[in-house]
Amino acid sequence: MRFLASVALAALAAGCTTQGGDSGSAGNFPAVAGADACASVTPAMLGATSASGKWVAEANGVPGYCEVTATLSPASGSNIGVVYRLPGSWNGKVLGLGGGGWAGNVSAQAASEGLRKGYATLQTDAGHSATTVWDTSWAANPEALKDFSYRAIHEMTVAGKKLVNAYYGQAHRRAYFQGCSTGGRMALMEAQRFPEDYDAISAGAPVYSLQVQTSAILRNNAFAKNGGGFSAEDLKLAQGAALAACDAQDGLKDGLINDPRQCNWDPATIQCSGAKNASCLAPAQVAALRAVYQGTRAPDGQWAMLPLSRGGEPGWSLFVGTDGKGTDASSEAVSNLFSIALGSKVDLAKYSMADVQAIRASAFGKMYEAADPNLTPFFARGGKLLLWHGENDPGPSPVATSDYAKAVLGRAPAASRNMRYFLLPGVEHCGGGPGAAPVEWLDALAEWDEGGKAPAVLVGAKPDKSVVRPHCAWPDVARYKGSGDANDPASWQCVRRTES
């Protein structure tokens, strides 16, 4: 997600003293603290090895805040960078934020939405200073691997709550977390390993298992096999044929397939009968498309290569080596990390089902993956989980998130009340694509947590409002009523989707 004026210090008497994420006692909010308090921040206020505060004046619609930069070292070899942004007028809530790729995120931009809404924001570099999302050079440090996998977000949260209490003179009343991609995995890790850290969590497009990385390798190899690579025009050709076959299934031809799992278009319908030309696909291209639409299972029945959705083909090249060269932007990073984790060089071009199982069974895999569907402890204390994924995502497949949502519902009885899952037609990785995004996830999370009513429909819209659509909570899907403005949510209804 993309995220009042400076005032004099007026530390208020503590209205509640509980440090847990479920602290609900009434304090004096908004609580006010300004530049003088910021200059007085010390490492002891959050249990850090180093810490300093600087006041950042109001700018570009973001109110003035105290920016606290610190280092946490819970173990020898661990150096977790954290940044806390404490608004001059605080709403009493903290907001933890996730990272992306193989990195954390301490940027002010990521915190801007929360700061505008009065949240104290908590951020971390996830245990290493690299900011490039495909940089895994840091992984040679086993403590950094542990930090990135699960420890950094938890330590950031514990220290952040302690700092907030000391800075404002009262504890937070609610704690929320939001993240997408790697941030989505961090979100699920918090719910699974540290259920008391947050009251409500938004997890988008979660890269929650190493199946995402193995899928990338196997997809690249599928496109490289026998000259199965695609040009940008070929990808558009495939998309056009898929839309022609399935776009109207939701009652409206609008360039979006609302339920791609019900689209059975076969690329063989546009296979060339002779030489390859601009209006058809070569046999190797048809084979590659069939493979990535279907996915591949490992011998243990788990996904090795997760399926991609029909209708999103032009966006695949961001995460998939559709050009047939056998690599994508993440390949070097994945190769380096897997080689470190397994103790031997990994040859991505010869990646096998045995390799898939080996990396998932490795110590790193067990530490990194946030695949545990037992969220009973989180739900038992009233925790709320808002899970979502774009249907056109070319990185982590929405199929994996759907599988996880179903597993949670089957394992934790309270999930039917405390979890909501949304699939967003036409939306790519954490946003973008032809679909209706963004959605105001943070507002939805707060309204659910404080109002007590789980969302059944959330509206998404492109920034220019050219596409506005209602998104129905799973297992429902939006269907056009047959008349009315397509950009009016009232023109749509939620119907139960057909299981594949």
Question: How would you concisely characterize the structure shown here?
Answer:
This protein is α/β, with parallel strands linked by helices and 500 residues long.
How would you characterize the overall build of this protein?
This protein is an alpha/beta fold. The protein folds into 2 domains: 31-211 and 371-496, Alpha/Beta hydrolase fold, catalytic domain (Rossmann fold, 3-Layer(aba) Sandwich); 212-367, no CATH class. Helix content is 31%, strand content 17%. It is built from 14 helices and 17 strands. The protein has helices at residues 35-39, 108-116, 142-168, 182-193, 211-224, 232-246, 283-294, 331-342, 353-361, 363-368, 376-380, 398-411, 415-418, 441-451, and strands at 31-32, 50-56, 65-72, 80-87, 89-90, 93-97, 120-124, 174-180, 200-204, 296-297, 303-305, 384-390, 419-424, 457-461, 468-472, 476-480, 492-496. Strands 2-3-4-7-6-8-9-12-13 form a 9-stranded mixed beta sheet, sandwiched between helices. It has a two-stranded antiparallel ribbon with strand order 1-5. The chain has a two-stranded antiparallel sheet with strand order 10-11. α3 (142-168) crosses α4. The longest helix has 27 residues, at 142-168. Residues 1-25 have low confidence and may be disordered.
